[in-house]
Amino acid sequence: MKKLSIIILILIITTSLISGCKKSDDTLHILKKVEAAEILNARFSFAHDISFDDCISQFKELCVKDYDISELEASREDYERYVKEEKEYKEKNGVSAFDLDMVIELSTVYQSDNKVYIFTKSEVNKNDNTLKPQINIKKYILVKENDDWRIIGVDTHWFEKDAKHASYPTYDNKPIDYIKIMKPFKK
Prior knowledge:
This protein is of the alpha+beta class.
């Protein structure tokens, strides 16, 4: 009987460790997926070193099969204008209009039913000080599709860094726990 109890205890511990590793692997995979989306967004939005079509194509690879990109497609004209303005600014001043030494924080993975959520927070500054520092908060929503976590939605909010009306997100009425810092333009 004592041997049976020990064997059952070992099985319980082994099962717990295996499921814990699976959850840890999922968390790392989800974080890498959101990190890839953030790097892609930073390159697209601030460095302008990726074409519009390449950005859309690469972003679609991170998303569910039927992700609606019509909102992104609608921004094509704005993007082309921004690229032109950025190129002119860089030629005139020798640096990018945006401070590319930006930091992006990624939250822990929050799970509810069959969805997971990751929040990101970044500060965007312009080198020419024509824009007050802006905070960009995003909530990525992911679901499993064909046994892979995929982005199904992204909620984005912008506000001035020191704005009184700034609303930082919470989850279950608790502040978001940011666990990872990344620099998308770190060489």
